[in-house]
Amino acid sequence: MCRRVLCLAVGIVCVLAIFLGASGYVFAVDTAKATKTGDQKTSKSASEKAIPTANVQSDRDKVWNSPEMLWARAWMEEYFRVSKKYTPEQKKEYRKHLASMTAPQMELWLMQFEEERQVAAKKNEAEKQNRAVRTTRGLAEIRNQQNILKNIEKDEHKQAAQQEKTINQDRQFARSMYKQQQREAAQATMEYSSGGFGWGGFGGGFSDERLKRDLKFVGTSPSGIKIYRFRYRGDSRWYEGVLAQELLLTHPEAVVFASSGYMMVHYGLIDVPFRELSECDGVPGP
User: Which of 112, 135, 229, 281 is most buried per CB count within 10 Å?
Assistant: First the structure.
C-alpha cells in the first residue's frame, strides 16, 4: 500500500516537473519572440520616422529655393530696406518666422503674397491712370489759361492800339481845329476891319460872343433885349451892344452868319443901338 502511494506521488511529481519544464520553455520562447517582435517594431518605427523627416526637409528646401520664393524673399528684403514701418527686431523676427515654415505653409504664404502683390499692382495701375488723367486735365487747364492770357493780352494790345489811334486822331483833330480857329479868327478880323462900323446897317459888325471879352450886363431894352458892355478880343476900347447868341433865340431875323462862321447882328432890326463908349460913360480909357 505504502509502495503504491509512494509511486503515485513520484509519478505526480514527475508529471508536474515535465509540465513546468514545458511551460517554462514555452514562456521563454514566447518572451523571446515578444522581445524580438518589439525590437522589430521599434526599428521599423524609427525607420519610418526618419524617411518622412527627410521628405519634409526636401519638400521645404524645394519650396524655399523655388524661383517664386526667391523672388518673394528678395522683394521682402528690398521692402525691409526702404521701409521705416518696422523695427530691425521686427524684421529679424519675421525672417526667422518665415524660415521656420513648412513647405505647405510656405506655399500658402506665397499664394497670399502673390494675391496681395496683384492687388497692389492693380492699385498702383489705377493710381497711375488717375495721375495721368489729372496730369492731362492739368495740362489742358494750363493751356486754357495760357489761351485766356493770350486773348487778354491780344485784346489789351488791340485796345491799346485803338486808344493810341484815337489819341492820335484827337491830336490831329485838335491841331486842325486850332488851325481852323486861327484861320477863322484872322478872317473875322479882316471882315470886321473891312466892314467898319455901320457897315450895311450892321452897326458894330460882329456881335458873336466868342469874339468878345469882359462882358457886363447893363440893362434891358423896351422889347426885352439884354444890353451888355464889352471889349473885342484884341481891342482895348469899350462898346455897348447885344449878344448874337441870345438874339438867335428871340430875334433870329436880326442875326446873320458870316463866311467865317461867326455871327453878326443887324442893329437896324432891333431897339438896341450899337455904340462905342468913352470915359464920359463911366468906363476906363483904352
Answer: 229
